[in-house]
Specification:
heterodimer; A: seven-stranded mixed β-sheet; B: five-stranded mixed beta barrel; globular
Chain lengths: 449, 480
């Protein structure tokens, strides 16, 4: 397994932390990541990097007090020093009565998501991929983007006798193509293996979008029916995860879904679930405290079922952990990292054909929360926004600002795409979603490009 | 440790690098969070390693490792050279570096009391008392307090002869109250949102913040926000406090004047900029009351240092003078494209990332008067305070920002509190409408600890000196 440290060595180093004296419990979270990222702009490689790092986060329990220390010194001495540091903190801080204890004895080792070819990719292969992408772009257009290949290992060990380990790989190629007389196009692919990346296809797709978005015209902000491509939908789903699906937010009344278990919150066609073990995502089968990740039905045919839980929120709410803890300390609570929106039966072309006057959105940019309880967010369109008239693309338009409730938009989702794309905001987190037609979407401003 | 950096440079040069730098970085951090008088989290972290950057035939390569033994450094240096050679797969104008005098020396950020040496019990006790006072306010559901400490030791050696050592210590704290009711969630924080006010200083900075003294008012405002009307939707006069001005400067001036963005190097990620190289000395960016300076020499600023991560000395650079755009913040590579010297703005997030152009301390120069004077001089408008939300397009033109709290200004007085305020605008129109900038009395050097940029993603801590200011004809109260 090229690049990986492996479970035996991880056990040995973690053992030095688990054995310290004066602790009632110790947990070691191990993270190892290595890989390269080749960045390009103006159709040339301008930043190409490689890095390798290991991390140990040691959580020490003394009575009902907790201390946490992290180090990137992957050695027995480093693990021991971190554990002693954490124990010292636990000795002086205030109690944490909500601490649920460490995960119980058990073992889970899963090397299935590790692709040896991806873990071994060198800079030449990434550079060749970028060159292929660039050559697929039309004349007068230039490409910018990043080609990344990463290997990783995650492990959790604790004094209850739990040990989990999972090596993984990830490859991604993202591009924005610009040129001509204004306008730009975007395409990206995330996958577990580098062989799933087709640079030529990605370049062609972004280039075609850039060509189609030339000379964008002004359009008045206002309410429009929209066809959202998967990348735009991933923004809505990702923000809903942030402000909606966490069990802690829900329990504390801070979620836009608090108190709505069993309520219809979206159109019948909308089903969202989280499943790290489903093919087509980049998940690991346990969370960062070593609890197996379960498939959780979040919104089922428009009805909100429940959120995700970790051991702490499970204790607080009388529920069971669904295996969605983030690394400690974590004030956000549990979080779904492997979301899926179930596909429907429509193509993007069919969705466009159903719109009399509306907009087609490729992706959103720099989105942020306006009102968390109302699930209202704001952001911009970019890299291909088009006016639809009488069921056809009429012309590209300049970028628009939206200010819109996510739940309201999901309530107005009248068509769901049959193809899904995987979008990833950061490693271990990915959403696989289809395109959507939303009957009414509020645009509140516009830009000059 | 400098010898380790020098060894990396020698290994890279031996492997074929025309230029090389080795940067050994040791990061330490401590973060404490208390919520409703219970420990929410306490965390100390350390990270050490080396980043090796090379130029081969005008192409960059970068490789980083956490292991500092000689064989690993030699392997990593050779890998950096291999990466640079692979980058020549696509032709480009070779990178040229603006000239800089090689330097040797050391620099430490100013500090009276090392916050890492202050007893944990004292830090926890401060947060416990502050959150106790927040919680005493009837209606506060969640009372949070946090303290964050960062120490970075950097040793940089370059093949041009630079050999420097720097240590920065950043210290901050803040409190936040959350009130819930009837479909509303309102937050009020002090001294600023997103974990408070952080500065290049020691424990004395946290002691002066007044977290305990201001807790009751902070909690009371959070609760009152549940009962007041929404900020109306209208076009009106807008007064911003210095905390919100920090964010306004950051997003709509700081980022657009980064020369790597201007040259398209960030195009595919966070975007580019509406500002062009030929705009230097010509573009009317703001009204003539607005002068903006990038100053890495400001004591206490998160963007202050002795030298940047290319060994370029800290500088004070006029960005906007009397409303007219003057200059970018730059690196040696990007400055040379324009035939200029570097402004010294290259910083990396730890050892594992290559340096990027990052804001230093981008500040508005103070004019006259206090915040009270500014409000008193306003006949009708809205005053907004403390950022909650930010969004701006991929060329930094159209923005929309949200604040925690607002008040109606009538005849120079605050007459009505509003909740959920926000405002939107177009960058140069908005700055062009500025008709008042406050003076030194209410000018604060804020820290922004979470500025994201680059791929792989990097987080920088940057500074912004900001005074309250007034803007005319601004659209406020944007609703979904």
């Amino acid at each position: 397994m090229p690049g990986a440290i492996g479970p035996d060595e991880i056990r040995r180093v973690a053992g030095a932390a688990l054995e310290i004296r004066g602790a009632d419990g110790v947990e070691v979270l191990f993270l190892h990541e290595w890989g390269g990222l080749t960045r390009f702009a103006s159709s040339a490689i301008h930043q190409s990097t490689w890095r390798e790092d290991t991390g140990l986060r040691v959580r020490v329990v003394v009575g009902d007090r907790i201390g946490i220390a992290g180090t990137n010194d992957f050695s027995e001495a480093g693990a021991r020093a971190a554990a002693e540091n954490a124990r010292e903190m636990a000795g002086v801080v205030a109690p944490d009565p909500a601490f649920p204890g460490l995960a119980p004895e058990g073992s889970l080792e899963d090397p299935s998501g590790f692709d040896e070819a991806t873990a071994s990719v060198g800079p030449k292969r990434r550079a060749d991929g970028v060159a292929t992408l660039v050559s697929a772009c039309a004349d007068d257009f230039v490409a910018a983007g990043a080609f990344e290949t990463v290997g990783s290992e995650v492990a959790v060990a604790n004094t209850e006798g739990r040990f989990c380990w999972a090596p993984r790989t990830m490859a991604s190629l993202t591009t924005v193509v610009t040129g001509g007389e204004g306008g730009s196009g975007f395409a990206e692919v995330f996958a577990a293996g580098v062989d799933e990346i087709d640079p030529e296809a990605i370049g062609r797709r972004a280039s075609a979008k850039a060509a189609a978005s030339q000379r964008p015209r002004d359009v008045d902000p206002g309410r429009y029916p929209v066809v959202l491509e998967p990348s735009a939908v991933s923004t809505l789903v990702g923000f809903l995860a942030w402000i909606g699906f966490g069990g802690r937010l829900i329990a504390e009344g801070r979620s836009c879904l608090s108190g709505k278990q069993g309520d219809r919150v979206a159109a019948e066609a909308v089903t969202i679930f989280d499943d790290a073990n489903e093919p087509g995502t980049l998940g690991i089968p346990f969370d960062f405290e070593g609890v197996p990740r379960e498939r959780v039905s979040l919104i089922e045919h428009g009805v909100f079922r429940d959120g995700v839980y970790d051991r702490r929120t499970a204790k607080q709410t009388g529920k069971r952990s669904t295996g969605h803890a983030l690394p400690p300390p974590n004030s956000e609570g549990p979080f779904p990292l492997n979301l899926f929106m179930a596909p429907g039966g429509s193509t993007v072309e069919e969705m466009v054909a159903s719109v009399d006057r509306g907009l087609l959105v490729t992706r959103f940019h720099y989105t942020n929360i306006v009102h968390p309880v109302e699930s209202t967010i704001t952001g911009m369109t970019r890299d291909g926004t088009f006016l639809i008239e009488h069921g056809e693309i009429a012309h590209p338009v300049k970028n628009l600002r939206f200010t819109q409730s996510i739940l309201e938009s999901l309530q107005g989702a009248s068509m769901v795409g049959r193809e899904t794309d995987l979008a990833s905001e950061f490693f271990f987190s990915a959403s696989r979603v289809p395109g959507l037609k939303v009957d009414s979407f509020q645009f509140t401003g516009s830009s000059d490009h | 440790v400098l010898d380790v950096a020098r060894q990396a440079v020698e290994a890279a040069t031996a492997a074929g690098a025309d230029y090389a730098d080795g940067r050994v970085v040791a990061d330490d951090s401590e973060s404490i969070t208390v919520r409703n008088q219970e420990m929410e989290g306490i965390d100390r972290s350390t990270s050490e390693g080396i980043g090796i950057r090379v130029l081969v035939n005008g192409y960059w390569g970068f490789a980083a490792t956490a292991r500092l033994e000689p064989a690993e450094i030699e392997r990593t240096a050779a890998l950096a050279v291999e990466i640079a050679r692979a980058s020549s797969r696509l032709p480009r104008d070779p990178v040229r570096l603006a000239e800089v005098e090689p330097v040797t020396g050391s620099w430490h950020s100013p500090m009276q009391e090392d916050p890492f040496h202050v007893a944990l019990e004292e830090k926890v006790a401060l947060l416990m008392e502050a959150t106790r006072r927040l919680q005493q306010v009837d209606g506060v559901a969640f009372a949070e307090g946090g303290i964050d400490l960062y120490r970075r030791r950097t040793h940089l050696a370059t093949s041009e002869g630079t050999a420097i050592e720097q240590t920065t210590v950043h210290t901050g704290g803040g409190i936040e109250a959350t009130a819930l009711g009837d479909g509303e969630l309102q937050r009020r924080s002090f001294p600023n949102s997103f974990r408070g006010h952080i500065a290049a200083a020691g424990w004395e900075h946290v002691q002066k913040l007044g977290l305990i003294d201001e807790a009751e008012r902070t909690g009371a405002e959070a609760v009152e926000l549940l009962r007041v009307p929404e900020c109306p939707s209208e076009v009106t006069t807008l007064v911003l406090d210095s905390g919100q001005m920090e964010l306004q400067i950051h997003e709509s001036i700081g980022h657009p004047v980064e020369l790597d963005r201007v040259l398209g190097m960030e195009e595919a990620y966070a975007g580019s900029s509406f500002v062009r190289p030929e705009d230097r000395g010509r573009l009317r960016y703001a009204s003539d009351l607005v002068s903006i300076t990038a100053d890495a020499t400001l004591p206490g600023g998160l963007g202050s240092f002795g030298w940047d991560d290319e060994g370029v000395p800290a500088q004070r650079t006029p960005i906007i003078v009397d409303g007219v755009f003057q200059d970018f913040i730059s690196s040696r590579e990007t400055a040379s494209v324009l035939g200029l010297p570097s402004s010294g703005a290259m910083r990396a997030d730890g050892w594992q990332n290559l340096p990027l152009i990052r804001m230093t301390n981008i500040s508005i120069e103070p004019r006259e008067g206090t915040l009270a004077d500014l409000i008193g001089d306003t006949d009708d408008g809205v005053f907004m305070s403390t950022n909650t939300s930010w969004s701006i397009d991929d060329k930094r033109v159209n923005f929309q920002f949200g604040c925690e709290i607002a008040w109606r200004i009538k005849s120079g007085k605050l007459v009505q509190m509003y909740r959920n305020p926000n405002y939107t605008g177009i960058t140069t129109e908005f700055w062009g409408s500025c008709d008042a900038v406050g003076g030194r009395e209410d000018w604060t050097l804020w820290g922004t600890p979470n500025c994201g940029k680059g791929q792989p993603g990097q987080t920088a801590r940057v500074g912004h000196g900001a005074a309250p200011a007034r803007f005319r004809n601004v659209r406020v109260g944007v609703r979904g």
